[in-house]
Amino acid sequence: MIPKKQFKKKARNAKRRKYDSAWKEVIEKLFENFLEFFFPDLHAAIDFSKKTEFLDTGMRPIAPFSDMGDRASDVLVKVHLKDGTYRYICIFIHIEVQGQPRANFMEKMYIYNYRTFDKRIEAGVPVISAAILTDDNENFRPDEYVVDFCGFELRMKIPIVKIIDFKLQNRLREKLETSANPMALVVRAQLKSLEVNKADDNTKFNVAKELIRECYKQGYSKKEIRTLAKFIEWVIRLSKTLEKRLKEEIKKIEEEFKMPYLASWERSAKREGKKEGEKKGEKRGEKRGEIKEKRETAKRMLLNNFSVEQVITITGLNEKEVKALMN
Fold it and tell me: Which of 73, 119, 186, 320 is most open to solvent, judged by the fewest CB atoms within 10 Å of its CB?
């Protein structure tokens, strides 16, 4: 039997990995929105007409953050600038909640920046580091590493975003309320997850439902809604029973807004695809799950009197497939 203390530690680590995955997927799927909202100076310098390449850092065995466990994660991306050059940007996500501030956080950031630069060096292409701090300690604001001794000077200053500031500062609260950028909803979900961290399941359920409803009210794209819904479901964890209930509520919201696509359906389709993949390969199974999801979505749309053209546009099915479903 697993000791109770060890079991609780594993549960905490699993929760942190969920936060890790949630933020990393948001950054990768909505990278341009992410930079525009959180780091506008970086966003203004990048040429988004050229390919953005996300990279595996390959730094796990030697990363100075290894002793922090799942409390820190990173995304490394290669971007092209408007001046014709390119850079590596390393976005760090500090995900510790209700933890003690790390006095050596910036020292570790400096070491990580250099090691990434040393490993990825291409004619001296620099690595630009930035950090998102999702913890709830308003006094923890590391942004500078300095060594100054006997004529030797070394300084690294990084841009940081403290999520809790969107609750504490009037200017950022106003930005949160008025911005159409999907990252505004990401921030709201993150703040809500801190508020309801110790609340009962019904409270968490109502918060998750209202946040998902807001995705539709804002008129986000299909890709944005799916990514945001996954983020919400990751950072506000529900019991299996309430997950099923939330799925039913989502169906009602979808019918209300006439937009039949969301992460819960996508996830269900992937589960079916995974089962099929155990027999014929995981990739093939996931593909079949996606096709089945599209067909089920198309059926619901046809039952709600959507036109063939609308069904084709939203699901990606061809005209022949849609007309076959009409029968």
Answer: 320
